[in-house]
């Protein structure tokens, strides 16, 4: 298997977190993806690749490209045969700038590239298909994204707010305090988040806390769940269980069992290798 992960060029770093590429002569795997604080643009030249909500039929089957927005429910992907996928992880505030569509209209959706980018995506797909070198493909993708993001911007306070909610220690009243420090109302902050990120600041904070929880559990599965809830400043373990179940359909204990079974790796705590693909 060939795996490449690289940083975007300087002009893209405001909007793009990472570029990635995966290929294999043969690959057979079924994954469950849990919510992360990123959107994703994906290109696919695999023999078979499908993706959709975990409990529903696939939305995408063997498409060459699609956009996956922030999601708050688990997704299932399946691939078999010759495999080649690549794409970009986009920062939380990148979606509206990339598409011109308010991000809240795209939340929990997996959309074909044509739906969002129209004929432009067909042109880049053709160029990518004709390019054999993996690094050259990522360079072409970078050029496409650079043109899409050219002269685009987001409010500086929104980036500051998103980073504060991702990195600050959670406490009651955190969002109200953040809005006050920015000299805007909580309602204005919510409107900006819905437009640029796709979810409210409160829901964004829920996803951050969930990601913190799975990262800690994947790296230390033997820890006490009660202590984990306390460390993350949940009121009690029941509140942690409720958040976990709402986003993954698993309890923290069930998630931990998958870590111990080797199906969830510490470096990718939001991806559960759920076995072989089922055609």
Automatic annotation (TrEMBL):
GO molecular function per UniProt: DNA-binding transcription factor activity; sequence-specific DNA binding
Keywords carried by this UniProt record: DNA-binding, Transcription, Transcription regulation
InterPro entries: AraC_XylS_family_regulators, DUF6597, Homeodomain-like_sf, HTH_AraC
Span of domain HTH araC/xylS-type: 155-258
One family name in Pfam for this protein: HTH_18
Gene3D superfamilies reported in the protein's UniProt record: Homeodomain-like (1.10.10.60)
Top-level taxon: Bacteria
Protein name in UniProt: AraC family transcriptional regulator
